[in-house]
Amino acid sequence: MRRSGLAARLLVLGIVAALVVAGIGGWWLRGNLHDVVTRSFEQRVLAQADRIAARIVVDADGHAQFDDPRAADEFTRIFSGWYWQVDGGPAPLRSRSLWDAGLDTTPAPEATGAALLRATGPRGESLLGLARPLSSTAPLVLRVFGPADDVDRERQRIDHVLAATLLALVGALALTTFVQVRLGLRPLARLRDAIAAIRDGSRERVGEGYGSDLDPLARELDDVLARSARVIARARGHAADLAHALKKPLAVLEADAGGPSDVAAPVVRAQTCDMVRLIDRHLARAGSGAGERRRLDVGERVAALVTLLAKLHEGRGLSWEDTTPSGLYWRGEPTDFEEMLGNLLDNAGKWARSRVTVRARGGPERLEIAIEDDGPGLDDDQLARIARRGTRFDERVEGSGLGLAITRDIAETYGGSLTFSRGAEGGLHVNLGLPA
Question: Which residue, among 49, 41, 58, 50, has the nearest Cα to 84 in the 3D structure?
Fold first, then answer.
């Protein structure tokens, strides 16, 4: 069973359940039908015993006499299979059908547990009957027996009919189970085909339409595929960012390579250190947790980053206002959160004239962080181009033009968003939305 498929398991379990139910139900029905046949024969024997007892006269000395020995019935035909006998008197009294033979006086109880007794007739045939006292004043016992073959044949006929019926029922149940399994697992087969089509490149999403049980699984698979696609796109972006960031140091190295060694050496060392830092930074980003999620205290992380950025831009005399409430949490990689918020705060610190404001609010499903500065702001065309890789609107401000693009990449990896607009004081308003 461990190596069997789901369809085979369901089919085997369905057949086993059908066999168990049919076996238990058939055994119960067989017992009841056998009991009906036995009770019917028992009533017939009782009726015969009552009729015979009514025609037996017992005198004061305990002698029993049958008052109509010439009555023509099954008890007058020799070895008819129906016999009666009175025991306990001075002389035995028998039916004519016994001729000169006698009945076993110690018959065994019938196996069904009824009041009937089983005995052997004068010709070795199997008999069923009962014994009853004739008189309360004399130890006379009337024994009446009839042929057991009729009862046994009826029981066998019931067994044959039940066996054929139950086999047909089990076969029908097995066929029904097979059809149910095939029809029930068809949506699963379609889901498998959809996944195979994604692997082959003929489709991009699993989609829905597999039923209420499998549609949630299909949606989860689509989410996983979309997340994987974002991670791959992010990795490609990392490579492009690194290549773009290394262009300037390499150009400087190339320009200074032919100069005097005392001038070129410090430049080479400085540019080499810059490239090493860039490589380390992008390696750290490449290893950040696109799939690893931790529960982070947003207020604590924002406060730490604001403190750090305030020190970095201390010479500009900026006022940093953080109104993030306590009790906000986000599930994600700390490195990613610090990369996103650090880029946004650093960008605001570069362009702000006097103040940077950070606000955050959250709900059960989404976290929103807004960062606003009072700088010169951007026009509509610049707002449309601001998150493009390498876009810089003022070459006098230090930077590579990658920070906002990197932030958007990371946010989209988590299913979030990054939007830009004009602030209330004319500066840039950035809103970072992330799934909680």
Answer: 49
pLDDT over threshold 80, residue 97: yes
| Residue 210 token pair | 């597999």
Bridge partners (DSSP) of residue 370 are 359, 431
DSSP one-letter code for 67: S
Among 85-99, 189-203, 276-290, the minimum mean pLDDT is found in 276-290
pLDDT at 232: 73
State whether CATH 3.40.50.720 applies to domain 289-435: no
Residue written as tokens 């947790």? 289
Using an 8 Å Cβ cutoff, are 142 and 84 in contact?
yes
Q: How far is CA 240 from the centre of its chain?
A: 43
CA atoms within 13 A on the CB side of 53: 18
Residues 6+ apart with CB under 8 A from 383: 420, 421, 422
Q: How open is the CA angle 325-362-418, to the nearest 5 degrees?
A: 110
Rounded Cα distance between 135 and 120, Å, is 26
**What is the rounded average pLDDT for all residues in the chain?**
80
Longest dimension (CA), the chain: 156
The dihedrals phi and psi of 221, each to the nearest 5 degrees, come to -65, -40
